[in-house]
Specification:
FAD/NAD(P)-binding domain; FAD-dep_Monooxygenase_BioMet; monooxygenase activity; FAD binding; oxidoreductase
Length: about 375
Amino acid sequence: MPQRAATIVGGGIGGLAAAIALHRRGWRVEVLERAPKFTEIGAGISLWPNALHALEALGLADAVRALGTVEAAGGVRDRQGRWLSRTDNAELASRFGHPLVVLHRADLLRALTEALPGDSLRPDSEVSAVRDGGRCPVVDHRGGESRPDLVVGADGLRSAVRRTLWPDAAGPRYVGYTAWRMVTEPLTDTPAEGAAIWGRGARFGYTSLPGGRMYCFATASLPAGAASGPSEYTELLHRFEPWPDPVPALLAAVPADTVLRHDLYDLPPLPSFVRGRVALLGDAAHAMTPNLGQGACQALEDAVTLAHCLDDTPDVAAALRSYDLLRRPRTQSIARRSARLGAVGQLSWPPAVLLRDTAARLMPTRATLRSMTPVLGWTAPGDR
């Protein structure tokens, strides 16, 4: 059989993972990235057990785990700093086969790019359109034109592939709150456990990174595009410096010019992730809020599942239909669950906040772990 070719649009985590999965199966791949180079900036990423299972299928789980850190435990605290719920990482690993690993996004991206041939990575190759070329789709990009057997749209929330081939699909929708992300300088005394602190219409979270650094994130219910104060860092201090320890110390260790802020959007459900020989993957297909830490995890699952479906048949269109049946119900369910958790976390009416915190405090730890099974209990196709 002639070597099959795939064009991956988007050089983020999902796109690179899909390229690796296909390359290891003998496909000729090219990854078209609009930016001048393949890189990620600024923040950490949580890889839950399901993501580690996907990386295991790619042969990268051990290498990626070595780049990150595994905290002993984590959980949720209230605005006074009291624990509402806690999760033991050892128990998480025992139940689901891997622990929760946290690392810098740039380190994960580097591990993925290093697993691909250099000539398959094509930066500065913005895609303008994907067209139906009969037997093969046609991808118009800055470097010219590609006519592969398969196109994977992994180009994020505002996907050019989705915009071209799903012109009637609803666009991204603002979820009602904005987010800040930041990484501290190395600390001599880091918190033993990570946590998300729930306030009223706001949250602050932190977790360990290698080298004594901490990855921190915060949310606040604000209109889309709301202006900050003199700087994002000043805005953070105004909103969160009065919060319980260790929040003030963590903010003090954040370089003021490195704070990232993004209004949060998700994607209304699509009726299909495929059109002929074109498949959407990751945020291009199912952008979700970060409340479950599952955005990149689901993109990794997508990549592994897509390659598995293509193993089963030489008919690319049929394989993509199988991919859609496997991935669309799961990812859309997780997106809904993440949105509900975000709505609960952002509650601001005092009686509702009291009820929320009381319910979280009364929930047994084992019940919490059981509730996570539909999300974290995924294993790669072929391992089941």
